[in-house]
Amino acid sequence: MQKDQLFTRRRMLLAGAAALGAAGTAGAVLAGGAEDSPEAAAPPAPGPRARQAPGPSAFRLQPLTGYGPPRAAPHRLRVRTEPLVRMPGRGRRMTLTFDDGPDPAYTPHVLDTLARYDVRAMFFVCGQCVAGHRELVARMADDGHVVGNHTWTHPVLTSLSRGRIRDEMKRTSDVIEDACGERPQWFRAPFGAWDRTVFRLGAEMGMEPLGWTVDTTDWMLPGVRTIVRRVEAEAAPGAVVLSHDAGGDRSQTVRALREWLPRLLDSGYRMTVPKWRV
To answer: CA-to-CA distance for 215 and 96, rounded, in angstroms?
Structure first.
């Protein structure tokens, strides 16, 4: 009698296990869809990996400035003895440069004119002006222009100590990077006042020195016609044109640019900026 009861219990347990197994298989088929479909059988394509927040211990190991790689030191350049005054390239190419900005009264008009003719230029900005108008420097970079360093307060660098020169240049590079995300790779000394110390410090900070070949003398307010005639008369392949978008009344600069830029473009000139990275 006891053997019969044990046998009956075993049969009931085996039957229950089989039923559960069948139910599990049916559930898997319903959840997964048609098993004979290649699309259903293929695993999903991997998507972008989400950034994981650091654990409690990671906060003690990471610097407070962020979780990205440390900022690379600027590439050490050769120390020049004179500024570059011509850009490489073939054909009728010129480079337009604007100093002393940004200025909310004039810089937007210059940027608008350049955008109208799809032209890129170089803007050598002063740090103290950038500090109050970072949005204009951000627009320069967004429009594809090159933003260069023109010191913080526009002093005659050759009259300053090495420490003062370095501070003028470094503070400006810092605020430019804060405004547009990149440190400047070009530098222009105010008033064209260069010496060995200026060249060396610029190279140490990863910046090439740039001069000019065509001076519009717009800072002297000579009149729109004079500015236009000077640019058109001195235009040449490889020329670097110096203008100003700040530092005083620059309405003549804005009006002259609207005249001579389309004329030079119509005559076959192309306005270019440096393509290489230091």
So the answer is: 11
